[in-house]
Q: What sequence folds into this?
């Protein structure tokens, strides 16, 4: 019974991914802020991207504090997937801060789903 809401959320996320708008060209990931937020550059322009459909543990905003449990592990895993690599982004628009909300792909692999599969983010 507990798995049904996760399956429904996953299917919903997949349907959104299919209908997303793709950015032209590839970006390079220059920074991983936490398990669901990255910075990308392309042609001298920088954008911040929140990975749509997932929520990862938050890192601490104060120096010397640990953040939520598994936040460092989640951030390191996302970094291993995207940092200094060419990525594609399918955008769903922007959030209230003007950051792009989207799905990130490395070599056609859906990074958002990889974070969920690694159990370091939830739908």
A:
């Amino acid at each position: 019974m507990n798995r049904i809401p996760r399956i429904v959320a996953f299917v919903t996320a997949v349907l959104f991914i299919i209908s997303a708008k793709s950015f032209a060209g590839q970006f390079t990931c220059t920074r991983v802020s936490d398990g669901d937020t990255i910075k990308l550059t392309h042609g001298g322009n920088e954008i911040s991207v929140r990975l749509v459909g997932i929520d990862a543990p938050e890192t601490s905003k104060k120096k010397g504090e640990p953040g939520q449990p598994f936040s460092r592990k989640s951030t390191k895993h996302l970094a291993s997937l995207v940092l200094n690599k060419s990525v594609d982004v399918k955008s769903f628009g922007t959030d209230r801060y003007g950051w792009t909300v989207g799905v990130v792909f490395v070599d056609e692999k859906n990074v958002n789903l990889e974070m969920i599969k690694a159990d370091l983010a939830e739908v």
